[in-house]
Amino acid sequence: MIQSSRIEIKSPKEIQRMSAAGKLLRAVFLELEKAIQPGITTGELDQLARRLIEDAGAIPAFLGYQGYPATLCTSVNEEIVHGIPGRRVLRMGDIVAIDCGLILGGFYADSAYTYPVGDVTPVAARLIEVTRCALNAGINEMRPDNRLGTLSAAIQKVVEDAGFSVVREYTGHGIGRALHEPPQVLNFGTPGTGLRLRPGMVFAIEPMVNVGTWKTRVLDDDWTVVTADGSLSAHFEHTVAVTENGPLVLTA
Ligand code: MF3
Ligand code: CO
């Protein structure tokens, strides 16, 4: 397939450097996770993340990207992605998707988790679990000679078997010295089709899952993406390399 020639292959040394970026990002998430409590604002979480990243000698990847104003995306409840941190107070029962990217040693790492704030409804808890499982199903297909469509279909199956829907209009992506590299990594697809995976390919896989319709809408701030029907949404993301031995999750 022609597209495969445009996909960058990272050397083992480059993957090592991406792994250093990924490990730092994981450490940032462990701190954020501790701070997520009813009463904290999304802006306070953003400040914490920025400080942790900069103190470690890294650079927030989203800040200034196409004019984006923050270090984190904080997407609450029916917000899917690209929620802008600010004065919003997290309340008991909310779910908050936190997306963060950083640059260390010239390489990007990109990851997202959805957290319950205190106790949440059973459907919210199940949505979070299903989205985490969907990401894991995709990661599991990051093997040499596998097709990209097989990975996409694996994500879609977990989501739809659970009765939820997978967002179509936003996708995962290749990642390396740029935040977004080819290919697009769709969260739905046909097994056995598309790009053939090779050792050294590195993708950010990021399923976005809605309780209701997969359709989306963008708010007046021109960033925040919400579900068209107001239903809850969750998002998980890891930066993952294909190796001879199978998937290597760089942000774990
Ligand atoms: N994880 C998202 C992505 O890779 C976050 C991008 S937010 C932006 O597309 F602000 F940088 F656009
Ligand atoms: Co991403």
Describe this structure in words.
This protein is an alpha+beta fold and 252 residues long. It has one domain: Alpha-Beta Complex (Creatine Amidinohydrolase). It contains 4 helices and 15 strands. The strands form 4 sheets. A 5-stranded antiparallel beta sheet has the order 8-7-9-14-15. Strands 1, 2, 4 and 5 form a 4-stranded antiparallel beta sheet that branches. Strands 3-12-11 form a 3-stranded antiparallel beta sheet, with no helix packed on it. Strand 11 and strand 12 form a beta hairpin. The longest helix has 24 residues. The two termini are 31 Å apart. The mean pLDDT is 97. It binds 2-amino-4-trifluoromethylsulfanyl-butyric acid and cobalt (II) ion. The site of cobalt (II) ion has 5 residues, from loops.
Would you kindly provide a brief summary of this structure?
The protein is of the alpha+beta class and 252 residues long. It has one domain (12-249): Creatinase/methionine aminopeptidase superfamily (Creatine Amidinohydrolase). The chain contains 4 helices and 15 strands.
Task: Write out key terms for the chains shown.
252 residues, globular, binds cobalt (II) ion, alpha+beta, four-stranded antiparallel β-sheet, 28% helix, binds 2-amino-4-trifluoromethylsulfanyl-butyric acid, Creatine Amidinohydrolase, five-stranded antiparallel β-sheet, 26% strand, 4 helices
